[in-house]
Structure formats: structure tokens, C-alpha cells
Design brief:
With 246 residues, this protein is of the alpha+beta class. The protein has 2 domains: 2-101 and 232-245, no CATH class; 104-230, eRF1 domain 2 (Nucleotidyltransferase, domain 5, 2-Layer Sandwich). Helices cover 34% and strands 29% of the residues. It is built from 7 helices and 12 strands. The strands form 3 sheets. A 5-stranded antiparallel beta sheet has the order 2-11-5-4-3, sandwiched between helices. Strands 8-7-6-9-10 form a 5-stranded mixed beta sheet. A hairpin with a 2-residue loop joins strand 6 (104-111) and strand 7. Residues 242-246 have low confidence and may be disordered.
């Protein structure tokens, strides 16, 4: 029995529609040989081929797991936007089911000076609110003047976080019991500080995913189009070389 080698990958981010089309092609392929789902936290999957293991190792760990499809001339790995509801079995069916589902997702986008909070019910924005809060730019001077400036800036940042947390409560509360997941967007350091300060966010700790949404400007226009970003999957595709002896 040989071990399949994988040529260098092409990596993409696909929205829901694009991935559904690709899955239909995989399902219809006469060269399809295997599909498997590797749940989050499984470093050494069992009961799968060397091609699946190799693809999983190359793609790396994913908090939502990894669906791998092996064809005669290609291997595809997909890190879905949310975990699949299967152990290892029908990866294609479970992934299609997820992409066609109507989940309710809470979204909070924050950058220093602006915030945007919304709830997606399927593809529809069921509620949202945006706003701004003045935050001073960094001060370059030294001495006591700089220390006063930094204290003032830190106060303004706290006020921004507190306002965003208040708005999050207002927007999320009507849907709190039915939210499937919560996603945050913005600068990593800012989000870390916000998560530490916003007590309300801790109520969704078990439903808050670690991946960050792109949020160049957290405004209503960004929220209106955030569905694509929320449902985007990371996709790797490798050409498969001929098997070589073990």
C-alpha cells in the first residue's frame, strides 16, 4: 500500500454559495475515494487514510474541525465556519447541512473610536446598532504630560468598551437564548481588552469563537455585508502525486 504525496496547496476563503458548488462537484466526482471530518481537538485522527492525515497536518488545527475530501487527483480540506454535527462520518452531508442551515449569530465589531453590533438570523440582519466614541491618538511627548494623556486615553477606551458592551446587551438580549454562536471583529489586542472588561460577553463564553472577523470600519454598511464573512470557510486544495511505496 502506498502513501500519497501532496503537492503544494492553493489556499482560498470561500463563501457559502461557492463552497456548496464545490461540494456538489466533489459528490458527483467519479474519482472521489474518501471523505472524513476531524473534530476540533483531535491531533491524531484514527480510521482515516494517510492522505487525510497529511492534509490535516498541513492545514493545521481548526477550532471548528476539518472536513477532508480525497479524490484521485486532488485533496481538499475545509475549515468550516462552525463545527459540524458529525463525528467522522459523512463529511460532505454534514458540511452541506451546516451551510444550508439558518443559525443565529451575534456579531460585535470594535475598533478604537467605533463599534458595530448585530444579530444575523440566517442571512438576515435581525437587529443592529452602530456608533462612535472619541479616542485620542497616541501621544509622542514625554514626561508628566504624556502620563496624563495616557490616563485620559485609557479612560476613553474604557468608555468605548463600556458603551459597546451596553449596546451588545441591548441588541443581543431579544435573541440571547437562541444565539448559536458569537463572533468578534477588529484588532486582536483591542478585542482581548474588550473581552476582559465586558461582563455580558462572558455569558456567551461557550458560544464565542476565537476567529476574528475583518472589520476595517465597524459601521452599518459593514454589518449589512457581514454575512459573507461570518459564513466564509478556509479551503486548501492539493494536487495528489502518485503513491510511493512505504
Amino acid at each position: 500500500m502506498g502513501t500519497a504525496l501532496l503537492h503544494p496547496a492553493e489556499r482560498r476563503r470561500w463563501g457559502r454559495a461557492r463552497l456548496l458548488r464545490a461540494l456538489a462537484d466533489v459528490e458527483a466526482s467519479a474519482g472521489r475515494r474518501e471523505s472524513a471530518y476531524i473534530p476540533p481537538g483531535i491531533a491524531e485522527p484514527s480510521g482515516v487514510s494517510d492522505s487525510v492525515r497529511r492534509a490535516a497536518a498541513l492545514a493545521g488545527e481548526s477550532e471548528t474541525g476539518l472536513a477532508v475530501f480525497v479524490e484521485d487527483d486532488r485533496v481538499t480540506a475545509v475549515a468550516p465556519p462552525f463545527p459540524l454535527s458529525c463525528e467522522t462520518g459523512d463529511a460532505a452531508g454534514a458540511l452541506c447541512g451546516l451551510l444550508e442551515s439558518r443559525l443565529k449569530i451575534g456579531v460585535a465589531l470594535i475598533r478604537l473610536g467605533r463599534y458595530g453590533v448585530g444579530v444575523l438570523d440566517g442571512d438576515r440582519l435581525a437587529g443592529s446598532k452602530t456608533g462612535s466614541r472619541y479616542v485620542k491618538n497616541r501621544h509622542r511627548a514625554g514626561g508628566s504630560s504624556q502620563r496624563r494623556f495616557e490616563r485620559s486615553r485609557e479612560r476613553l477606551i474604557r468608555e468605548l468598551f463600556d458603551k459597546t458592551c451596553e449596546v451588545m446587551r441591548d441588541v443581543f438580549s431579544p435573541h440571547a437564548g437562541s444565539l448559536d454562536y458569537v463572533l468578534l471583529g477588529g484588532d486582536k489586542a483591542v478585542l482581548r481588552q474588550f473581552a476582559a472588561r465586558c461582563g455580558y460577553l462572558k455569558e456567551f463564553e461557550d458560544r464565542t469563537l476565537g476567529r476574528r472577523l475583518a472589520a476595517v470600519r465597524p459601521d452599518q454598511r459593514t454589518l449589512d455585508g457581514i454575512g459573507w464573512e461570518v459564513w466564509a470557510s478556509r479551503v486548501w486544495r492539493w494536487g495528489q502525486a502518485e503513491a510511493v511505496p512505504d
